[in-house]
Amino acid sequence: MRQLRTDLAMESIPPGNEGIPGVQVNHWETMGVNMTEVLIKTEGAARDLGKSPGRYITLECPAVRQRDLDARLAMSNLLGEEIARMLPAEGDAPVMVVGLGNRFVTPDSLGPRAVDRTLVTRHMFQELPEYADRRMRSVCAIAPGVLGVTGVETLEIVESLCASLHPRALLCVDSLSARSASRIGSAVQLTDAGIQPGSGVGNHRRCLTRDTLGVPVVAVGMPTVIYAATLARDAMETLCDAQSADSALDAVERELLEAELGDMIVTPREIDALICDAAGIIATGINRALQPELTEEEIAALMD
Amino acid sequence: MRQLRTDLAMESIPPGNEGIPGVQVNHWETMGVNMTEVLIKTEGAARDLGKSPGRYITLECPAVRQRDLDARLAMSNLLGEEIARMLPAEGDAPVMVVGLGNRFVTPDSLGPRAVDRTLVTRHMFQELPEYADRRMRSVCAIAPGVLGVTGVETLEIVESLCASLHPRALLCVDSLSARSASRIGSAVQLTDAGIQPGSGVGNHRRCLTRDTLGVPVVAVGMPTVIYAATLARDAMETLCDAQSADSALDAVERELLEAELGDMIVTPREIDALICDAAGIIATGINRALQPELTEEEIAALMD
Amino acid sequence: MRQLRTDLAMESIPPGNEGIPGVQVNHWETMGVNMTEVLIKTEGAARDLGKSPGRYITLECPAVRQRDLDARLAMSNLLGEEIARMLPAEGDAPVMVVGLGNRFVTPDSLGPRAVDRTLVTRHMFQELPEYADRRMRSVCAIAPGVLGVTGVETLEIVESLCASLHPRALLCVDSLSARSASRIGSAVQLTDAGIQPGSGVGNHRRCLTRDTLGVPVVAVGMPTVIYAATLARDAMETLCDAQSADSALDAVERELLEAELGDMIVTPREIDALICDAAGIIATGINRALQPELTEEEIAALMD
Amino acid sequence: MRQLRTDLAMESIPPGNEGIPGVQVNHWETMGVNMTEVLIKTEGAARDLGKSPGRYITLECPAVRQRDLDARLAMSNLLGEEIARMLPAEGDAPVMVVGLGNRFVTPDSLGPRAVDRTLVTRHMFQELPEYADRRMRSVCAIAPGVLGVTGVETLEIVESLCASLHPRALLCVDSLSARSASRIGSAVQLTDAGIQPGSGVGNHRRCLTRDTLGVPVVAVGMPTVIYAATLARDAMETLCDAQSADSALDAVERELLEAELGDMIVTPREIDALICDAAGIIATGINRALQPELTEEEIAALMD
Fold it and tell me: Is the pTM of this model over 0.80?
């Protein structure tokens, strides 16, 4: 039984084995960004991959990790287009952006930091509806905090707010884990399958999905860490396959290694800058998607 | 008509004039802390003072501003006792601590920072009720953010959470304004009258009271600023009274001065350290009040 | 004797009295920015104004305080031009940018935060001189910290570094005090007179000037605070002049007010955002001045 | 040739092979803390271990990682005693505490953050020598920043300050790397061998030693990371030794893995809290060692 944790659907498919029943995978490239779409169509496929049924899109661009300004812009633009496509048709009800994770745990802080840079407008409609720009769409945004800090499940807070604010959709942002070091800080995953228990760097306990919340839930995140135990096991399997020695592997030894690594993560030394860039890319994409009639300059001026 | 803004009930009483009908004022001193209790008993008195009916207690200790460790401890202990006295009798439902204000606006960040240092326990009862220490009381804590950042009124968020979490009381923490420079960073006010519109450094739009929320609301705060226009007017009035020249004051000139000062505040240069100390004093008082059966050491160990 | 503290030379000139011997004042306007040049030419004039002899230029633009993007850009550009004009002719030795003040005291943190956003290049010449872009100029940058935090006078640290790094000029950045509320967050002062004792929000003890350091010292800063005692005295004097009652003012009463106000400052509630904007404007101006052959995009890419 | 990076001398000794010529290793235990002393006595031994000659003491206590308050206190006390023993005899000249690393790169920020919590006193002797407490020792402290941020080598800054301040010793604090996950956040190393090139999380380019600086240099640090390439190679070697398959290992494959991991680090998810605790433990130990005649309470009061 494999214990290779990743929040990316594209990494949960065994390599060289994309022909799983109930799963469809498409690749394309645009503006220097590699796009991968994984469609998980059946419950059986969902069980096999350990991911909920739905559509998962991954945008990858290694130059983003090198902090290339053009690459960041291309990612933001493409992400904005894909978010817009995945969200339900427009309406007057607000979109609620939810920043998941813990602001004070750097590798888990992407959600709250992206929310900090999201343009919120709902209050302008509430306060001075006659002055609110007709081209603006209603957006609100919260960072509910994590269970250990608030004593309240994220789902409980989000459910309460959905019940009173009646958003037309939820857009959740979270820090993700990956298997491949090359995707840390250089990929973004977008899905309509919501947020699953045990996913994210902060390990959510309960689902945030259309089923639990009654509104469409789109989730977007960037991998910021690899679990160290996953990295070690991956390294060992790579090695042992090469030697056809898999059967000789001492499972006990593996367990010991993984126990010692516990909740250790693998991440770039510059994790702070990575999170800052990722929050900027995702927030820019969100602002584009949620305010299609405002220009970049108008959004920047309203953000100040 | 006077425009002297202060969130402290004790400062809204004209000096030398404590015998207002419907208002009762008591002073005492304990452990080096000066205590003032203002009881506003009638709607008429409330209108006159610009404060809601209720009980207001102010603890003052100038040594706190000098960062004296013993003075801080005395304040925390007394505050804890007074909070415990003001809260309703114990029960199984949680107390919800609410940190008002904006974490990213230093003079307005006291609420969120006090919440960061509040011991939350509600999730321990939810997850492993059989292991939860019987001596613990259930506490949850949120910092809902401000309207301009979330697009949602604080009251809307708190109302939603009250409806789903059914707390037995709310304990709100906020940055306050004062009139006297000597009270900045050295006084704490506690009241059962809730939070009023226009109060606090962040200027709440709508009430958080027992009436609007259906549960008892206790509010605690420390003055962190004087509004510059209030300071200027106070200085001018002091001067002109002394000269019996009040009638000669040019109201237009006053208005100009106040307009120029706009939303400027008066605060110590060391505002960051002041907020940090205040958050510690208030959180310590809250933890004492809400966990009467735990020792200081147990609280410290659970906070880590 | 007047105790009206301001770090702006233009505010130290009595209003309506610009014809002081040894002082020359010029006003002009460009790109929506009001420019004021004060030349203090004699030791007598310096004594009268409480400012060292030299050239002081103030750039003012109220829209900067309203966070207008175009106004910020105009300020940065003009500031860059004036810094370039005030610095000595180019050479191979580095310009040393010095961020004065305390990073952890928000109103005093402008210097360190501007330094964080300054492009440093000296190490590129040291490490890989053959690969360093010929169009780059050598720049190093330090934030030496304040006396209470390091136990070392700023002048001692800067002197030591000058002795070993041999910069061709120093460019000091500091938080300033002003008298007029309208200049907080909306003006920048630039001078070749260096940094004087008692100036700045952090109150430097000893001079940073060409005399003490042996190299040209250019100082740039934005007013972030008014001292509360200055504001109160200004308000009182305005009032009393109007009533021709100056002589009747009780000096004792004034002293009491000022004593109570102590080190209180007047500042906008949004001091954090003001400092962030100011650091950006000043760092952009510095980068333009010190890297005249690089484009804005090249500077941005090198900063990452 | 092995590429297993660690800053801990005790981890550079091959396991089961402590009898290297020129190296002496001692173990003992006190107050629940495991102490290991490594003496590297010859240049040959230094070359073999990749560590400079000198004395290295490691204090280990797993309960520190679990944030146990008593364990933290025991570590601080023992560390204080060992620092005091390693520093030269007392004198009037100050001890200079140097916080190495980058404040804005969380895993590399231990040095600056420990310096923030170090009691500095040198300025009290300089300013009011007649009032300075005779029991205080002179201490100054700087966090010079890293090359990429200042454009100046750490050694250049420290050399300049040594030349002008004439400290009697340097006490450098740095974030370290380790090989064993069990030592991250739970061990402290202290050495009189100074700081070597390539050591620390920030990778210093040049030595800070008695030879380069002319004064005794004591270095103290806590491991905050494992280099991911070291972890992967360690995992592979463990595995292959067990299978006696070392010779079969494809070196090319190893290189590829290590290249992909690049500068990735392995660290606990709660890296922010770990750094905060570590800075507290080390600063407390430093304050004890440098102020032997002050009580804990006096130090706390002076720190405020």
Answer: yes
